[in-house]
Amino acid sequence: MASSQASALGEFIRRQRELNDLSMRQVAAMAGISNPYLSQIERGLRAPSEQVLEAIAASLQLSVEALREHAGVQPATEDGDGEPAVVTAIREDPRLTAAQRRALLEVYRSFTG
C-alpha cells in the first residue's frame, strides 16, 4: 500500500473511531492489536495486514471494502451474490455512527428477513 493510501486509510479509521466515540485503546483492544500499532496505522506510518484490517473494520462496524475504498484501494470483488446494495451503503456511509448503522440494518433486516 502506497504511503498516501496508508495515510488516507489511517485518517478514515481515526475519523470513524471518533464518530463512534471510541478511544484508540478501545478499538485496539476490540481489534486485538496494540495501542501503539493502531496509532501508527492512524498516522499512516504502517499499512495493516488483511487480518488486522478485517479486525479494525469489525470493531468499527464497517466493511473492509469501505476501509479500502476510503484508502483509494480497489475493493475486492465477490464471486456470486454479495450483500444487498442497501446493506453495503449503510455499512460504508461515514456519516453514520455505529449505533445508527446497527439500527438501520436491524430495520432493513426486519422488512426483508
Index terms:
single chain, 113 residues, mainly alpha, 434 Repressor (Amino-terminal Domain), 7 helices
Describe this entry's structure for a reader.
With 113 residues, the chain is an all-alpha fold. The protein has one domain (1-74, 81-113): lambda repressor-like DNA-binding domains (434 Repressor (Amino-terminal Domain), Orthogonal Bundle), CATH 1.10.260.40. Helix content is 65%, strand content 0%. It contains 7 helices and no strands. It has helices spanning 3-19, 24-31, 35-42, 50-59, 64-70, 85-92, 98-112. α2 (24-31) crosses α4 (50-59) and α6 (85-92) packs antiparallel against α7. The chain starts with a helix and ends with a helix. The relative contact order is 0.15.
Using the CA coordinates, give the radius of gyration.
14 Å
What is the terminal-to-terminal distance?
38 Å
DSSP helix fraction: 55-70%
What's the structural domain tally? Answer: 1
List the helices and strands and how they pair.
Layout: H1 3-19, H2 24-31, H3 35-42, H4 50-59, H5 64-70, H6 85-92, H7 98-112
Helix pairs in contact: 2-3, 2-4, 6-7
What's this entry about, in short?
With 113 residues, the protein is mostly helical.
